[in-house]
From TrEMBL:
Compartment(s) of residence: Cell envelope
Protein name: Aldouronate transport system substrate-binding protein
Tagged with keyword Transport: yes
Family matches, as InterPro entries: Bact_solute-bd_prot1, SBP, TAT_signal
Superkingdom to which the source organism belongs: Bacteria
Main location: other
Record keyword Signal present: yes
Source organism of the structure: Streptomyces achromogenes
Family: Belongs to the bacterial solute-binding protein 1 family.
Pfam families: SBP_bac_8
Keywords from the named record: Signal, Transport
Cross-referenced PROSITE patterns: TAT
Amino acid sequence: MTPNAASASSGPSRRSFLASTAVATAAVAGGMPLLAACGGSDGDSREGTTAGKAAKKILPAFVAAGVVTPDIPSKNGSAVGFTGKLDLATLKTSVPKKLGKGGKVTVMSPFWGSPPKGDNPYYTAMNSLTGVDVVWQNQDGNTYDQKLGAVLASSNVPDVVVVPGWNMGGKIPSAILSKFADLGPYLSGDKVKEYPNLAAIPTDAWQRAIFGGKLRGLPMPSSYVPNIVPFYRKDLFEKHGYEVPKTTDEFTALAKEITNAKAKVWACGDMKWTAFNSFGVPSGQEKPLGWILQDDKLVYRVELDAYLEALEWSRKLFAAGYVHPDFKLGKSQAVDPSTKFAAGEFLIYNNDISSWYGQQASQATQNPDFQIWGMDIFGNGDADPVIYATQPANIFAFVNKKASESVIRDVLAVANVTAAPYGTKEYMLTNYGVEGTHYTVKDGVPVKNDKGNQEVANAFIMIASPAATIAHPDFPDIAKGQVEWQQRMGAFTKKSAFYGMQITEPTRWTNLSNDFEQLEDDIVRGRKKISDMQQAVADWKKKGGDQLRDWYRKVLDDNGPAAS
């Protein structure tokens, strides 16, 4: 891809998540377990989930894309990889016939940065390719939840509204059911074959697009293997003879060896996110994934002994002075470590997988010795890491319930273009813009110019995206490294009980777990104690955690757990 470094952070920021899913969306093709419906016989419940025979009737047929053959096939749920140079003359065509009928479609979507003018060459070219006049109503991604709530509460809803999973709190799930159309009549079963690129989106991702018993969303597939990688300075490791750790104890010993505060060198950043994977703690980013089965008992992540052990291990790194002082400030996600990591002030940190390429590309000319690499997630003691899969889709585009059939079909025409696979003309235009205007190709490497960076950004990819792909023609070794890291880590990755399910919690418990993340950050920095977390968990159970467990147990009993 182009050398545009993703926003760096020590945790999974929303923007880096977008960069990761748009550039390297890894999802498992097919195979979502067909589960039984929950929450009402009409299949349109506002709480619970929809699966089983009801889901089978709703889901689009899966037809693998045969347009392009990847250099590295998927394994253990990894993305597919492309390591060759790009030849524009040999790009395939995945949409031979323009499906749009020339209608106008308004789209509201989050945007990070300054949105381009509506008549820019990128938007004009995409509209020409799709046959649809798409008019963008871009909103600040950092405050998108506020705008989203206001728009959905009004009677003036655009034709298409993009909703990221992290903005689905409060009344948003209810609004999705009342404001947006059922796309099943156009996409369920073999109907999707009219849109071949949509048919190639993995079934798991479509399963996540079922809201209230209806196929309402167009998904952006995301990775099966969690996207947080423990990165390290490979060049400095080789220079000093450091060994990549294989256990949490080895990591601690290495951190002690590296740290020399007087020389302004520290071992690492906040390693909390890696610790959760090392100790076998499911993610807290998506609430259903935080629930796992232990001896047939449903347990939430904060109740696990491993949860406290991971926090304690992370706390000790801070307490021993192995963590760069910048990470002691505020929340872990608020730190931008890219400059000081590049300067060698610390040698290890965890970040979104997109930073692997982004960091290397940004340092390529000014620091030619710089080499970032991803270490395998290490286990605790003699145990292997226990990694829980991420949801197969977490950003969705919805169509207004009041939209006419012609508008819906125009939206699907656009989505069929934006979901085109890597190696096609449609993918290049969607992701790079117009050759000569937005990018140039030199020695098989497409490079965006300033205009491309400004105009070709988080717009059309939000309507729909292809399945898992990683490709960096300018850094093929990193593309190969990313895919192979996913393949190795995929061997330790398993599905939690509610993997792939789109679950709407009762609103009375929506905010029950909101304070845990801040408390985690306070504990690892020594501002709070492990006992404070134990008290918080006890309070959580009393305030509704135990009732929420019973509610999730009913969902599980009615549906069965996700297949491993």
